[in-house]
Amino acid sequence: xxxxxxxxxxxxxxxxxxxxxxxxxxxxxxxxxxxxxxxxxxxxxxxxxxxxxxxxxxxxxxxxxxxxxxxxxxxxxxxxxxxxxxxxxxxxxxxxxxxxxxxxxxxxxxxxxxxxxxxxxxxxxxxxxxxxxxxxxxxxxxxxxxxxxxxxxxxxxxxxxxxxxxxxxxxxxxxxxxxxxxxxxxxxxxxxxxxxxxxxxxxxxxxxxxxxxxxxxxxxxxxxxxxxxxxxxxxxxxxxxxxxxxxxxxxxxxxxxxxxxxxxxxxxxxxxxxxx
Length: 276
Ligand code: FE
Ligand code: FE
Ligand code: ZN
Known about the structure:
Order of helices and strands: EHEHEHEHEHEHHEEEHEH
Number of helices: 9
Shape: globular
Bound molecules: fe (iii) ion, zinc ion
Strand content: 5-15%
Structural class: alpha/beta
Radius of gyration: 17 Å
Mean pLDDT: 97
Number of strands: 10
């Protein structure tokens, strides 16, 4: 069994997202912690957050996979962007405590010409400043497609960040099927080998969540264009092997496919069929 859900709008608050997930037959979901292209965050309403926590318990939800805004780049070359991003990370981790014990996923960042040797310590430093021992959230680094100067395009790059993180029990990885494929890992023909490689380089115990997407482009294209499940270059058969893989059971699978609510409900139903 896996938990399945999709990325939801947070505009109506926490409880409304839980109800929306239920309506789509999901038992987890993702949401942006703030406007993905902007910076400001709404005040959190404690009661609304508690109502979601209650709903999740009652309905046996898996862990949520919150997503940091795209504007966050903790390894930016410009000091003001770096500072802004560090503050977003720290503030978001405080806010995550309103829904304790879940996941906070972020893109490691783009090194914008500085090179990954400069970027990797900056990313770890931002995490080390933001993450405190009393936090109940696990921070997830997302596997990236390697578009532009993205850091996290290989398992090795992610592991280099993890090695520098102080609170090792609070750091993990979110495995994005579209990104991994675009990044050059052939999960269509060599899924077992890719997972073995992940285990050898990072350790499968760090793989906490899956972003479940098909891809518009071939393996190793470094493009990052998501496609609906079964309509892309990865295809339904290979994605089915991912969702039913024994090593990936028990984890939240988040759809970030180009869909409306109806489309998400259809994909969730299709994946549930695979589990039977
Ligand atoms: Fe992402
Ligand atoms: Fe993703
Ligand atoms: Zn993507």
